[in-house]
């Protein structure tokens, strides 16, 4: 007997169109920066890199995970900034806001240690072309791993995990944000990619730094390590891009073999077919590449995964959304 399955009826609620991005083509810059123990130098160095990227035509600049501080549990409390207080309490944050405004670009500001009350977070701030904060993502999945003889790290010794996925509407499209270890959790990327309208006007869900309905691009500032980096870094980026048929951009600090945590480097841009568009080695670099959003529809027409998804057998559930409805 023929199956009664009708994919277009199985989705609840129905998928909406991918939102039309405000630009079709633009240049993104991945600034793979060297990071030192000198915070002032790190800030000035990042400012120069952003300016150079903008001078070369980048409309979106992505910075690395923890670019203003060494990546260590000893350093996080020392270098942390009070983003909500701003001003002198948050010099890295203030620099990014000023740079975005004066250069007229969007900045996905990598991440910095953030202090909020008695808690510390690993936080990415997104700035619009007016320099205003458009979104703030606190790393949701803390990097706690133990591979004996290779790498052991426990971010949870000092950091608290964020509680919300973050998707931001910018002048260069709808961007889902994750920080490093967040890339391992495919559900987060799927949630960002899901073309499901929860609110009739797609407006912000009350009290949450979150908007759902079809990201064009996922940005992951990240500092993978010398053990998992060679095996997983590119694999995960390509998987997130191919599964969700969108762009994925990552940005790492440059490698410093003298530091306690040695970053893998290899900042990369991946297209919606899972193809590596551009990548770099482990030294300092500013990678500038074009993003062409017309490829999103093309690849989704080539491979109509959204129509073929078996919503009658499995569905992605946003548990926060469900619990806010109860
Ligand atoms: N900073 C991080 O989250 C590192 C993640 C990482 O190296 C991994 O293997 O995952």
**Number of DSSP strands?**
15
Helix/strand order, N-terminal first: HEHEHHEEEEEEEEHEHEEEEHHH
Rough outline:
globular
Average pLDDT figure: 90
Quaternary organisation of the protein chains: single chain
**Bound small molecules, deduplicated:** ligand LYUYDEPV
Please give the largest β-sheet: 7 strands, mixed
> Any low-confidence stretches, pLDDT <50, length ≥5?
199-211
Which CATH architecture? 4-Layer Sandwich
Count of alpha/pi helices: 9
Give your account of this protein's structure.
The protein is α/β, with parallel strands linked by helices. It has a single domain, classed as Nitrilase/N-carbamoyl-D-aminoacid amidohydrolase (4-Layer Sandwich), CATH 3.60.110. The chain is 26% helix and 24% strand. The chain is built from nine helices and 15 strands. It has helices at residues 7-10, 39-55, 75-79, 91-103, 186-193, 228-244, 294-302, 305-308, 319-325, and strands spanning 25-32, 58-62, 106-108, 112-116, 119-127, 133-138, 144-147, 151-154, 166-170, 173-177, 217-221, 247-251, 268-270, 276-279, 285-292. Strand 9 (166-170) and strand 10 form a beta hairpin. Helix 2 packs parallel to helix 4 (91-103). The longest helix is centred in the N-terminal third of the chain and has 17 residues, at 39-55. The termini are far apart. GO terms for molecular function: omega-amidase activity.
Q: What's this model, at a glance?
A:
One of its GO terms (biological process) is asparagine metabolic process. This protein has 326 residues and is of the alpha/beta class.
């Amino acid at each position: 007997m023929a199956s009664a399955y009708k994919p277009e009826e199985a989705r609840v609620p129905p998928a909406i169109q991918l939102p039309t991005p405000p630009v079709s083509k633009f240049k993104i810059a991945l600034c793979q920066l060297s990071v030192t123990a000198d915070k002032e130098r790190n800030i000035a160095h990042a400012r120069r890199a952003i300016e150079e990227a903008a001078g070369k035509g980048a409309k979106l600049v992505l910075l690395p995970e923890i670019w203003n501080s060494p990546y260590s549990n000893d350093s996080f409390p020392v270098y942390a900034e009070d983003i909500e207080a701003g001003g002198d309490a948050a010099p890295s944050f203030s620099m990014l806001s000023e740079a975005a405004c004066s250069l007229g670009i969007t900045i996905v500001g990598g991440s910095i240690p953030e202090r909020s009350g008695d808690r510390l977070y690993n936080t990415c701030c997104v700035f619009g072309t007016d320099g205003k904060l458009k979104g703030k993502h606190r790393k949701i999945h803390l990097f706690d791993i133990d591979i004996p003889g290779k790498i052991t790290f426990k971010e949870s010794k000092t950091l608290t995990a964020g509680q919300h996925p973050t998707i931001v509407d910018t002048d260069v499209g709808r961007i889902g944000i994750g920080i490093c270890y967040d890339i391992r959790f495919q559900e987060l990327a799927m949630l960002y990619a899901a073309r499901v309208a929860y609110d009739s006007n797609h407006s912000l869900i009350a009290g949450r730094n979150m908007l759902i309905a079809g990201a064009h691009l996922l940005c992951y500032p990240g500092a993978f390590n010398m053990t998992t980096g060679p095996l997983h870094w590119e694999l995960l980026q390509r998987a997130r891009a191919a599964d969700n048929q969108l762009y994925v951009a990552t940005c790492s600090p440059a490698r410093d073999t003298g530091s306690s945590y040695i970053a893998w480097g290899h900042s990369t841009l991946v297209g919606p077919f899972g193809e590596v568009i551009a990548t770099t080695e482990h030294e300092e670099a500013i990678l500038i590449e074009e993003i062409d959003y017309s490829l999103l529809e093309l690849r989704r027409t080539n491979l109509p995964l959204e129509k073929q998804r078996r919503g009658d057998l499995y569905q992605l559930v946003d548990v926060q959304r469900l619990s806010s409805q109860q």
